[in-house]
C-alpha cells in the first residue's frame, strides 16, 4: 500500500538521515545528485558494519564473428577507456574474456569485463566498489567519467547502484527479515510502494517502486526500480542487507 506520509515529512526524514550520514562520513560532496545520493542516508541509518558501495553497468555490445574480431573490439574499448588491452583473451568453456583493471587503490577497486559468448553475442560490464567513506566521491566521479566513455562507444549507460552491509538483527532468529519499523523506514524515506517479495530459508527479497528514484521518462507504469534483500548467514546468524536501484546484480 502506498505510504500516505506527507511530502513535508519525507523531506524532514531525508534531511535528518543525510545529516546522520554526513556525520559518519559516508556521503557525497554537496550538490551531487543521483540514486547513490538517495540511498546513502538510508543505508547509513541501518547498516552497522562492513559497509560496501558498488556501482555496476552491464549491457550487450557489438557481436563478433571470430576471435580476431573480438580482439579488435577489445582494442577499441581499451582505447576509449585509455587502457592497455591484454594480448590474448582468457578462454573458459568457449567463452572469451578480457579483464581490465580500471582502478586499484586503498579505497576503490574498479574493473571492466568484455565477454564473448559462443553464439557471437557479447557483454560489457563495468564495476566499481569501495569499503571506505573516502571512496564514495571517487565512485561518483568514475560513474560520470564512464558515462562519457560509454557514450563514445554509443552505449546507453545502465547503472545498478548497490549498498551492502551487516544490520543489527536477532542472530538467533531462524528466518531473515526486516522488522516492521525498518520496512516502514524504507517506504517512507524513499517514498516506495512494495510490489512483490520472495523468501526462502536464508534470504528475503522485496521489490519496490519508488517515485524519487531515477527511472526512464518513457515508463508510465509502476515498475520495480528499488530492491532490498536480507541474507542470513546460516552459521553465524548475522544478517546482511543489500539496498539497490533498480535491482540487485551481485550476491546477497
Task: For the structure shown, list the relevant keywords.
about 30% helix, about 250 residues, 2 domains, elongated, 10 strands, alpha+beta
Would you give an account of this structure?
By secondary structure, the chain is an alpha+beta fold. It folds into 2 domains: 7-49 and 165-245, no CATH class; 62-154, no CATH class. It is built from 5 helices and 10 strands; from the N terminus they run H-H-E-H-E-E-E-E-H-E-H-E-E-E-E. A 10-stranded antiparallel β-sheet has the order 2-3-4-5-1-6-10-9-8-7, with helices on one face. Strand 2 and strand 3 form a beta hairpin. Residues 1-32 have low confidence and may be disordered.
Helix and strand arrangement:
Elements (H helix, E strand, L loop, with lengths): L6 H18 L10 H12 E14 L6 H14 L9 E3 L2 E10 L3 E9 L5 E9 L5 H17 L6 E9 L12 H10 L2 E8 L3 E8 L15 E7 L6 E7 L7
Helix pairs in contact: 1-2
H/E series: HHEHEEEEHEHEEEE
Helix content: 25-40%
Ends distance: 26 Å
Number of domains: 2
In terms of DSSP E residues, the strand content is 25-35%
**Which consecutive residue ranges, at least 5 long each, have pLDDT under 50?**
1-32
Mean pLDDT: 82
Q: Numbering strands along the chain, what is their spatial order in the largest sheet? A: 2-3-4-5-1-6-10-9-8-7
Rounded Rg:
20 Å
> What structural category do the secondary elements indicate?
alpha+beta
| Global morphology | elongated
Total strands: the figure is 10
Short characterization:
The protein is of the alpha+beta class and 252 residues long. It has helices at residues 7-24, 35-46, 67-80, 136-152, 180-189; strands at 47-60, 90-92, 95-104, 108-116, 122-130, 159-167, 192-199, 203-210, 226-232, 239-245.
Amino acid at each position: 500500500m502506498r505510504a500516505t506520509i506527507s511530502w513535508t515529512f519525507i523531506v524532514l526524514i531525508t534531511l535528518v538521515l543525510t545529516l546522520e550520514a554526513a556525520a559518519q562520513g559516508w556521503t557525497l560532496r554537496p550538490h551531487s545528485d543521483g540514486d547513490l545520493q538517495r540511498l546513502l542516508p538510508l543505508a547509513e541509518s541501518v547498516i552497522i558494519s562492513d559497509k560496501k558501495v558498488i556501482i555496476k553497468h552491464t549491457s550487450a555490445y557489438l557481436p563478433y564473428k571470430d576471435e580476431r574480431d573480438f580482439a579488435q573490439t577489445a582494442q577499441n574499448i581499451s582505447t576509449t577507456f585509455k587502457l592497455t588491452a591484454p594480448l590474448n583473451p582468457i578462454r573458459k568453456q568457449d567463452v572469451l574474456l578480457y579483464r581490465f583493471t580500471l582502478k586499484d587503490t586503498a579505497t576503490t577497486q574498479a574493473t571492466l569485463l568484455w565477454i564473448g559468448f559462443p553464439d557471437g553475442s557479447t557483454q560489457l560490464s563495468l564495476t566499481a566498489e569501495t569499503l571506505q567513506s573516502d571512496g564514495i566521491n571517487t565512485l561518483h566521479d568514475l560513474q560520470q567519467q564512464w558515462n562519457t566513455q560509454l557514450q563514445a562507444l554509443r552505449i546507453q549507460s545502465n547503472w545498478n547502484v548497490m549498498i551492502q552491509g551487516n544490520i543489527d538483527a536477532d542472530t538467533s532468529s531462524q528466518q531473515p527479515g526486516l522488522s516492521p519499523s525498518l520496512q516502514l523506514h524504507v517506504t517512507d524515506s524513499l517514498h516506495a510502494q512494495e510490489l512483490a517479495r520472495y523468501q526462502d530459508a536464508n534470504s528475503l527479497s522485496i521489490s519496490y517502486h519508488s517515485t524519487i528514484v531515477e527511472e526512464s521518462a518513457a515508463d508510465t507504469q509502476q515498475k520495480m526500480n528499488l530492491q532490498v534483500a536480507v541474507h542470513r548467514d546460516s552459521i553465524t546468524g548475522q544478517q546482511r542487507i543489500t539496498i539497490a536501484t533498480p535491482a540487485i546484480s551481485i550476491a546477497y
